[in-house]
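Quality-control log, excerpt.
Job 1 of 2 completed; input and output follow.
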Amino acid sequence: VGYFLHVQGITHELFTGAISEETALLTFSAEPFDSPPIDNGGLSIGIDPRGVFRLYLRESGGASFEDPTSFAIGQCIGTFERVSMVPKVKIGAVLMNVFTARLVSSEPFVMGGVAYDLRDIVGAGITQWGTAATEPLMPPFGYSAMVPFVGSAIRTG
């Protein structure tokens, strides 16, 4: 789960106040998955399975990492599917990953009086690369692990 800091093409402010999950208007939620590590010397690789994640437009903020289900509230404006396994590489104190996800469906939405559609913004999907901490946070009830991360993505088509 998480939130978006910026989406190129959307001109409306993405937060209702100071930047945080609590004020984010665009959140996402992925189906939970397990990523067992494969160690090779000083390199540790994890392979995430294919999976689905959704992007939500919220009328107001209110998401909380204490309640991961709170990121899946609002209008579902896009559903993505990771199209291949996701390699994660552990280098020192950070994890790095990259994956491509195709846009399975999109729903037109309005922000600040402007109509948008993710299909126009991301085309066929995205390729995302990210960096995460190796030290996990205390996971919320029902989850086995949680790590903070940041990612960037580019349009695939």
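Job 2 of 2 completed; input and output follow.
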Amino acid sequence: MELARSILIVDDEENIRKYLGNSLAQDGFEVYSAQYGKEGLTHLTRKHIDLVLLDLNLPDINGLEVLKEIKKMDVQTNVIIITAYGDISSAVEAIKLGAFDYLTKPFDYNEIKIVIEKALKLISLENRIEVLERQIDRYQYGELITRSRKFYDVLDLVNRIADTTSTVMIYGETGTGKELVAAMIHKKSQRAKMSFITVDCTALPENLLESELFGHEKGSFTGAIGLKRGLFEVAHKGTLFLDEIGDMELKLQAKILRVLESKRFRRVGGEKYLETDVRIIAATNRDLKTLVEKEQFRRDLFYRLNVVPIYLPPLRESKEDIFPLIDYFLQIFNKKIGRKISQVSNEALKYLIDYPWPGNIRELKNVMEHMIITSNTEIINLEALPAEIRGLGQGVVMPAYQGIPAESQKLPDFRKTKKELIEAFEKDYLNKLLGKTDWNISKSAREIHMHRSSFQRLLRKYKLSQNPFLKDS
């Protein structure tokens, strides 16, 4: 069911309010009316209004002032001015202030209906632009590059379930391509022409995530300076991808469950229910069954989401993908950075294959970018590999020199190697420590008798604060 378009008529003439109200209601609009400017503004603070028909000559406030206030509340609300024939100059001023159009009295319904339809088409276009901007900011489509039998099985499942309406739960470690698979499901579905929107459940605190998902009314909390449409509203008829849902707070999980069951929601601070038709695809790098047993994830939501589970293999279990991915990233970053790196040497390639890739494809991508930037030859050799891949944190004897007589070894720069050894050790130690404490910052800092702020600086240095497991208490 489509969301009903809402129109507010602000005019002190009762006959005009009744005439327009009855005509618009018969055409399926949700109609509100107000005799005074202040009354109209009150409607706008309590309800979402798509379009306002505003008379310039009101008994309490000048219509231009009402228009200014409307635009302060929600710049997306379109306003059509109604004015007497002899007051065209004020109507022109209203256009300058942001009104969509104006009509002069007397008018017939067909005339005003044409203008209303134009305004509503503009609203739809603006909403699509908003959707596209969100997608550009958060996601870019790409093709899944694989030679892995395990990933071929995933693709086969994607093809079978894409055109259904079932919810999908994607499991996989960080960097395995969960968002890419979710986008593929959307792209192959009947919703492909509508919006695909991603929300990172770890990126915002609970109150802001709730506002991001459901929207909010003006003044519903500190900082809510205007009306905001939420992602459930913007993604109507499309797909909403809830990334890292395992980190969502229990209170918000309950609200997600209600939306899945009722297809309705309310904005934060709102009274009116809005209907939504959205397909949910969720993803996590955590074991939801374990979280359910620990009462950290709702059992009923788990079963509601886990209709079609998809498991993505880590890169260490599909190492045949490393070769095509290296070739792909060479092309991408050569073009992006303006380099002409032709290949990775066999010696360096061996280390790339043997490395366990805890950050999976995302880590490989970052490593390739690093090597293409720093390499001073057309072939990426061993020296271009980051220290942790060369195993410099595993001991003073570097793997690259094992089996070579000491008198034949050409030693690397002392300061550079010392720095790499220390950094490799610190990064490896931090990873193991955070894994031990379930990525709890405060607990980790206490364990090694370090001040919390100093510990956080180390995390930022090695970019570990971006890990989705990271907890702040």
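Post-run check on job 2. The chain has a mean pLDDT of 81.
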